[in-house]
């Protein structure tokens, strides 16, 4: 693997670390190569493979060597180089000439090197330029024929001067050397092509290009030791005080800020803007490569290559148009091809759209209310005849639709190998544009009807009928993926029409067959028999962790490991998303996701007996890159918990958006829809709805659901943070708000008074907002019921809400759990026990629910059953699992109430065995924080201790506990044995739950 094999996203990740390495090198705390690699791994946990790290190490070592050499070189020239942070405004420009030649008008970045003999200051005398210019460097060695042009490949023009634009070389150099302008203004000297040595922190090299309004230099950023291209506008025909000149400068600066905000791998990056004297300049990314115009000298490209070129341009335009920036001069000369592949084939080099947007921001972005935007604004560059849209040719204001016409012209030239609107003169091409004269040859259209139709739509005379850049990007993506799938599908004896087969397949959710290397390798010892009749009998499913094929194998975490104790893997977030979607299927019990795994039939059967489910959903996924795009391939299996046999399985391919991290989870939610269909149920997933959530918000929500383990306080806190982030990303949604409310209520139950009150306030606020957005939200209604009785003492209202939820959502474990606690507080013991027993079956992995069931058993005098179950839960849970203390705390509570202080002390492993109750409680006070009686918060746990140790109970404790925000106060006051004396106090009547107005059936 080398850098050319990396995707744009992978290159960006490596470039980020390299840039930070360079920046730190200039400080008093430079990074070592290994420190930078560690930084890369930490920042891109899901990206690095071993090959990536080795490539990065090679790059960093090369950069380190170069920086050491440049530091020595810079120290020698320190007196003549401006200070790095010199002000850009009013910078004096040195008159000493150091420039070589003027390149022709064309792309504003990207060097067109001249022969060494034509350069008065050759690269051999400028090691800084030579080290940073691979093209110029090859010139000096004489490695490339044709005056330094790279060797020909399928992606490069043959080695000749046929593709070299006119007016380059010695003629330009002669014109440059014969110019004598004396003492003209620096800005005017720049406009005429005269030499400058520095602009602020940028040491000027030679001229790269010259146009009617300015000139482009190659320069060195002395702060970062990186090559850059500087475009300087000059107006030698306008005086400094001329209003037109002032307007042009102000417009340049204003609109450059808009362009600088664009961030896309296929748009040349704008680093900086400023003023040199009275001339504005822009500092841009320096590119080395060919223009698309030069490449097209070799002839048209294949449909696959055309698609890949078009996708990159359309993606760049979509980003720009979304920010209100219009290119207005789209043509092959403004498309650079970089990162060439010498291997040939159908893979495309990376595209960079150049000369992008400077002085070309959408008129509407800055139009005043009283301005006539139908007219061309002063200073607007109309475009190039043969590529400009008809409305531009008529002098009308350009919109994003004009860019799409230019895009159609470029793609036409790439696909057909000739100009869409030919003509000997600009006037001929303008006339052809207005007449709409475009010919479509039959031969290329036979190769790809999709591309032919798309190009024709972009070249429509009516702007309203042209597709948007986003639409074009999506259509080309579909075509690219379908072509890739057709090309890589298993070959049969029948010939396959690659293009026809590919264009018929949707890109977004591509369903393939069960066969295939990835999925077939997963099946192992599982057998696929005649199992279809059993599919309809599935009533309960557990989703296991999906294995990441690309990741380094790790030890299974197991049920004893809380997810909150570590970071989430992509396979775990994806499993959480599938659980979330399947939970909406009526009549299907879906266990909450926990990091469980099984591989053999025996393991599936054993886990099925433990969890009490009918089937398991498991599988694997991997990411693959085709060209510039990454895909997720998810292969799922439905496995019987009865005998471990394979019931069903499919494979899905979805596009992973680089601009929307987390979007793959939303795209893969379609898996849940297919699974539901296989077991005879219907499901419309989040990604299939018309009001689909924001992908990033959805990803945050799924992480939150995975973390939201009520057994873990740390997990609830991490989940709350994820839910809040999801709400921030997509405020439209009710689901994050409802989730915030539930997580806050669970945290309020186990924190001290101050924190509990804060959580309750957040829960009330979030619940109210969630119900405003969706009055039928299950989680929001559940939060409302919990708040009614745990905070507001509105027991009847809570009872009615739970009765409604129980009728509609009897398979929701949270509904059954919280309903059971309310029924216990109301004294409806048998109903409470039934509800909690159901909750343990719906979520058999939750220690909290299990111990709550045993606690309610104890409250209603099933002491022996409560102790036996609590011991079983304790012994089945590793000591490393924090939730084990839930069972230990319950046993301590029961043993203390029974007066068996020796057994209570054994649970806490007290160093001294107490002989009296006084000795025990003296030691117990020191262990109360480590071994609380239950998940009641510090206030209520202390109250249980005080009620067992204080000689007299003060009625004032009732008001204190009620006002503390302790959410389980009503339950404990009504049923906990330690609260008996407080409960029978006349003052307790106002705090006790009552069934006076409540029916006996829930």
UniProtKB/TrEMBL annotation:
Top-level taxon in the UniProt lineage: Bacteria
Domain (Protein kinase) ranges: 202-479
InterPro entries the record matches: Kinase-like_dom_sf, Prot_kinase_dom, Ser/Thr_kinase_AS, TPR-like_helical_dom_sf
Biased composition (Polar residues): 151-160
Region (Disordered): 75-195, 369-391
SUPFAM superfamilies reported in the protein's UniProt record: Protein kinase-like (PK-like) (SSF56112), TPR-like (SSF48452)
Assigned EC number: 2.7.11.1
GO molecular function terms listed in the Swiss-Prot or TrEMBL record: ATP binding; protein serine/threonine kinase activity
Positions with biased composition (Low complexity): 168-184
Keyword Kinase: yes
Keywords assigned by UniProt, alphabetized: ATP-binding, Kinase, Nucleotide-binding, Transferase
Keyword DNA-binding tagged: no
Biased composition (Acidic residues): 116-128
PANTHER family tied to this protein: MITOGEN-ACTIVATED PROTEIN KINASE KINASE KINASE 20-RELATED, SERINE_THREONINE-PROTEIN KINASE NEKL-3
Protein's UniProt name: Serine/threonine-protein kinase PrkC
């Amino acid at each position: 693997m080398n850098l050319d094999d990396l995707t744009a996203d992978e290159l960006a990740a490596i470039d980020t670390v390299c840039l930070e390495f360079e920046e730190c090198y200039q400080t008093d705390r430079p990074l070592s190569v290994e420190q930078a690699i560690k930084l890369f791994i930490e920042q891109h946990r899901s990206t690095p493979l071993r090959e990536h790290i080795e490539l990065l190490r090679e790059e960093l070592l090369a950069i380190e060597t170069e920086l050491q050499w440049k530091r020595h070189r810079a120290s020698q020239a320190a007196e003549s180089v401006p200070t790095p942070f010199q002000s850009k405004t009013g910078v004096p420009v040195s008159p000493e000439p150091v420039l070589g030649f003027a390149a022709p008008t064309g792309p504003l970045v990207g060097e067109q090197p001249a022969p060494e003999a034509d350069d008065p200051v050759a690269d051999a005398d400028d090691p800084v330029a030579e080290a940073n210019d691979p093209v110029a460097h090859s010139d000096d060695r004489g490695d490339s024929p044709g005056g330094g042009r790279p060797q020909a490949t399928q992606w490069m023009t043959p080695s000749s001067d046929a593709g070299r634009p006119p007016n380059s070389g010695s003629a330009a150099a002669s014109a440059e050397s014969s110019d004598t302008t004396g003492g003209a203004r620096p800005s005017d000297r720049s406009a005429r092509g005269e030499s400058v040595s520095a602009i602020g922190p940028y040491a000027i090299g030679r001229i790269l290009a010259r146009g009617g309004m300015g000139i482009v230099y190659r320069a060195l950023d002395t702060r970062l030791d990186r090559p850059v291209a500087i475009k300087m506008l000059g107006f030698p025909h306008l005086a400094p005080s001329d209003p037109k000149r002032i307007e042009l400068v102000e417009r340049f600066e204003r609109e450059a800020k808009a362009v600088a905000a664009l961030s896309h791998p296929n748009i040349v990056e704008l680093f900086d803007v400023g003023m040199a004297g009275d001339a504005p300049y822009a500092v841009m990314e320096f590119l080395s490569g060919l223009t698309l115009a030069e490449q097209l000298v070799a002839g048209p490209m294949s449909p696959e290559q055309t698609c890949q070129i078009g996708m990159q341009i359309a993606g760049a335009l979509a980003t720009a148009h979304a920010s209100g920036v219009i290119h207005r001069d789209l043509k092959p000369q403004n498309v650079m091809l970089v990162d060439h592949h010498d291997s040939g084939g159908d893979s495309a080099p990376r595209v960079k759209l150049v000369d992008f947007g400077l002085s070309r921001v959408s008129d509407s972005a800055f139009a005043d209310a009283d301005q006539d935007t139908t007219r061309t604004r002063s200073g607007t560059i109309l475009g190039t005849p043969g590529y400009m849209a008809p409305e531009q040719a008529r002098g009308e204001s350009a919109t994003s639709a004009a860019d799409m016409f230019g895009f159609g012209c470029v793609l036409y030239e790439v696909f057909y190998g000739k100009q869409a609107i030919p003509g000997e003169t600009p006037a001929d091409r303008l006339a052809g544009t207005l007449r709409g004269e475009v010919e479509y040859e039959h031969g290329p259209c036979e190769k790809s009807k999709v591309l032919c139709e798309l190009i024709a739509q972009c070249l429509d005379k009516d702007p309203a009928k042209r597709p948007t850049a986003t639409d074009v990007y999506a259509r080309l993506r579909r075509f690219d993926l379908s072509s890739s799938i057709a090309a890589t599908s298993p070959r049969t004896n029948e010939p396959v029409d690659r293009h026809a087969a590919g264009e018929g397949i949707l890109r977004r959710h591509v369903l393939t067959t069960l066969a295939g290397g990835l999925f077939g390798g997963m099946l192992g010892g599982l057998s696929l028999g005649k199992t279809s009749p059993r599919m309809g009998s599935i009533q309960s499913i557990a989703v296991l962790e999906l294995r990441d094929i690309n990741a380094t194998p790790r030890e299974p975490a197991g049920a004893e490991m809380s997810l909150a104790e570590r970071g989430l893997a992509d396979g775990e977030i994806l499993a959480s998303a599938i659980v979330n979607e399947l939970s909406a299927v009526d009549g299907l019990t879906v266990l909450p996701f926990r990091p469980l795994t099984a591989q053999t039939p025996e393991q599936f059967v054993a886990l099925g007996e433990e969890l009490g489910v009918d089937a398991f959903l498991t599988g694997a996924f991997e990411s693959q890159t085709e060209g510039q795009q990454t895909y997720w391939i998810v292969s799922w299996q439905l496995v019987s918990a009865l005998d471990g046999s394979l019931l069903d399985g499919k494979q899905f391919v979805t596009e992973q958006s680089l601009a929307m991290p987390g979007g793959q989870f939303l795209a893969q939610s379609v898996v849940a829809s297919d699974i539901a269909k296989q077991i005879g149920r219907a499901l419309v997933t989040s990604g299939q709805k018309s009001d689909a959530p924001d992908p990033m918000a959805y990803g945050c929500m799924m992480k939150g659901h995975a973390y939201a383990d009520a057994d873990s306080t740390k997990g609830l806190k991490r989940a709350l943070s994820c839910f809040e982030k999801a709400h921030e990303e997509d405020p439209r949604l009710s689901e994050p708000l409802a989730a915030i409310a539930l997580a806050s209520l669970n945290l309020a139950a186990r924190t001290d008074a101050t924190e509990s009150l804060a959580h309750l306030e957040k829960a009330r606020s979030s619940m109210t907002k969630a119900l405003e957005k969706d009055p039928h939200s299950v989680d929001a209604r559940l939060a409302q019921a919990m708040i009614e009785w745990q905070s507001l003492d509105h027991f009847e209202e809570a009872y009615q809400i739970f009765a409604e939820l129980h009728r509609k959502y009897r398979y929701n474990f949270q509904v059954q759990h919280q309903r059971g606690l309310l029924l216990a507080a109301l004294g409806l013991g048998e109903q409470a026990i039934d509800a909690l027993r159901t909750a343990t079956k719906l979520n058999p992995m939750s220690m909290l629910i299990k111990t709550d069931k045993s606690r309610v058993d104890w409250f209603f005098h099933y002491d022996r059953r409560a102790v036996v179950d609590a011991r079983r839960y304790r012994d089945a849970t590793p000591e490393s699992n924090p939730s084990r203390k839930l069972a230990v705390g319950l046993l301590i509570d029961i043993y203390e109430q029974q007066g068996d202080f020796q057994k209570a002390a054994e649970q806490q492993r007290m160093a001294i065995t107490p002989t009296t109750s006084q000795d025990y409680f003296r030691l117990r006070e020191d262990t109360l924080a480590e071994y609380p009686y239950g998940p009641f918060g510090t206030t209520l746990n202390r109250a249980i201790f005080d009620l067992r140790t204080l000689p007299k109970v003060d009625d004032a404790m009732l008001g204190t506990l009620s006002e503390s925000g302790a959410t389980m106060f009503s339950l404990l006051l009504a049923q906990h044995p330690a609260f008996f004396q407080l409960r029978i106090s006349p003052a307790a009547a106002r705090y006790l739950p009552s069934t006076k107005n409540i029916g006996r059936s829930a």
